[in-house]
Amino acid sequence: MPTNPQYMQRALQLAKNGLGITAPNPMVGAVIVYGDTIIGEGFTSSYGGPHAEVNAINAVADKTYLAKSTLYVTLEPCSHFGKTPPCADLIIKHKIPNVVIGVLDPHDKVMGQGVARLKSAGCNVTVGVLEDACIEHHKRFLTFHRKHRPYIILKWAETSDGFIAPLATKRGVKPQPFWISNSYSKQLVHKWRSEERAILVGTKTVLADNPQLNVRTWFGRSPIRVIIDRKLKIQGDYHVLDHNAKTIVITEIKKGPKWMKNIDYEVINFTKNVPQQICDLLYKHNITSVLIEGGGRTLQSFLSDNLWDEARIFVGPNSFGEGIKGPSFEGTKLSTKKIGSDFLNLYKND
């Protein structure tokens, strides 16, 4: 079956509209082509809503064209009932004869069954068109189902001499952030927060900075807050306990608070494999991606255990001379971007 990669490229472009709203579902894009004309296109709705294939089919004004069309979709159509019926069944119902898929779905309820169902109904199915681009696009979903952990993005800001925070004596009495990056970089971080399912920080970061860990200077959904608080030292009016966003507190105290509005307490063993236990816990909570913002010890623990996928590092123009040094790691540098007075370095884990 002849295929045209430009239609898959369009499907990928559409799929990006689902970033930050579809999780834990994948952000899929779909395009329906009749002859050389796109007659329908769609992307996955917010979680619980119609999938990309459904939206694309619904966008076709004259459904009689479907029986002579080709569907391009970035991820294998689902074959199971979830919050919505199987997309494979809808494709078969409308007798779409040709289906082009970017990458197979590793979900244990799909894993090639969507393709098998389509083929058994007589559809011509092609898999692997722009596969690398589709894998990159679906990296959160694929990592979650292949590695049984969230896609992990590490983020921090450091000074030109490599410090992520000043000495405690340089801070004020009241807990508040000590900014290294500029306002443009801070806005970009809020955009990133809107794109990921959860955000994670350690105890010292909360006690020193009292962060809100939400989305304020961008549009979008605030992430689930995940707080490592081994001894339950965070008490009182800290923002992370304000009940305004779903929050998971990870502790070793078994007799801690059992229930608070919007706050779950989870117990792990802090004497071994803490990053892996946290990954297992986030997987249990169906969290497909997490942005880890600090502090240094927390970031270094994930780096040292090789549990990370991306690192996004801001470098500001100022210097401290002394303080808390930034994490050390090895990774492949993808790019450097200038953001006002800051530089943003992007790395991936090989």
UniProtKB/TrEMBL annotation:
What are the names of the required cofactors? Zn(2+)
| EC number assigned by the record | 3.5.4.26, 1.1.1.193
Keywords, comma-separated and alphabetical? Hydrolase, Metal-binding, Multifunctional enzyme, NADP, Oxidoreductase, Riboflavin biosynthesis, Zinc
Which residue windows are transmembrane per the record? none
GO MF terms listed in the record are:
5-amino-6-(5-phosphoribosylamino)uracil reductase activity; diaminohydroxyphosphoribosylaminopyrimidine deaminase activity
* UniProt cofactor note: Binds 1 zinc ion.
Top-rank taxon: Bacteria
**Ranges of residues in domain CMP/dCMP-type deaminase:** 2-118
User: Which SUPFAM superfamilies does the entry link to?
Assistant: Cytidine deaminase-like, Dihydrofolate reductase-like
Q: Which reaction does it catalyse?
A: 5-amino-6-(5-phospho-D-ribitylamino)uracil + NADP(+) = 5-amino-6-(5-phospho-D-ribosylamino)uracil + NADPH + H(+); 2,5-diamino-6-hydroxy-4-(5-phosphoribosylamino)-pyrimidine + H2O + H(+) = 5-amino-6-(5-phospho-D-ribosylamino)uracil + NH4(+)
What does the record give as its pathway? Cofactor biosynthesis; riboflavin biosynthesis; 5-amino-6-(D-ribitylamino)uracil from GTP: step 2/4; Cofactor biosynthesis; riboflavin biosynthesis; 5-amino-6-(D-ribitylamino)uracil from GTP: step 3/4
Q: What does this protein do?
A: Converts 2,5-diamino-6-(ribosylamino)-4(3h)-pyrimidinone 5'-phosphate into 5-amino-6-(ribosylamino)-2,4(1h,3h)-pyrimidinedione 5'-phosphate.
Annotated family: In the N-terminal section; belongs to the cytidine and deoxycytidylate deaminase family. In the C-terminal section; belongs to the HTP reductase family.
Report what the protein is called. Answer: Riboflavin biosynthesis protein RibD
**What is the species listed in this Swiss-Prot or TrEMBL entry?**
Maribacter arenosus
